[in-house]
Amino acid sequence: MKTTKLLTVACATLFSYNAFAELSQEDIDACKGVEENAQVVMAYRIVEKPISEVYEKWNYNSAWMAVIDEAYSQRAMLSPEWQEKQINQFGSKYFKICLKGKSQ
To answer: In this structure, which of 13, 34, 40, 91 has its CB flanked by the most CB atoms within 10 Å?
Structure first.
């Protein structure tokens, strides 16, 4: 629980750059990019891509390493239908975190 709160704060801080601003299309597009990257991270986790390669893809960025660690701490779903749900849910979580960070 403590790790999740820390991760949420870290990501909200990382993905926010304009406190107190209304969400612009640029903000929304940036958060869609975060969502897509989080989905890729979870997809890599599901196919058991070595975590070192995933860290390298995101240039060992500490915020993304936290996202990667969270994905790799989850059990991968076995059926393609549930894998797609897992990927989408993981991406959606980070989309919402990003939006929250940009709207503060």
So the answer is: 34
